[in-house]
Amino acid sequence: MSDQWWFCLKHMAVEPEQGCPNKDRMGPYETRQAAADALRTAAGRNERWKDEDEAWEED
Q: What pLDDT band is residue 44 in, cutting at 50, 70 and 90?
């Protein structure tokens, strides 16, 4: 078994390698906790990119 984890968007839960199809998951992540934080990580990145886009458009 792999030491990688995924976050299932269908079940809103962390899964090991043997889980739902990849089309329904985010990952892989190195730790179970990183997979559990997947939505928070994605939201943070989206916010940062939005801010960068707005700053770029102002230039």
A: very high
pTM of the model: 0.81
Residue 22 has pLDDT above 80, yes or no: yes
Distance between CA atoms of 30 and 37, rounded to whole angstroms? 12
For residue 11, the Cα-to-chain-centroid distance in whole angstroms is 14
CA atoms within 13 A of residue 40's CA, in its CB half-sphere? 5
Between CA 7 and CA 50 the distance in angstroms is 23
Owner of token pair 């989206």: 46
19, 25 contact by CB (below 8 A):
yes
Residue with tokens 């390698």: 17
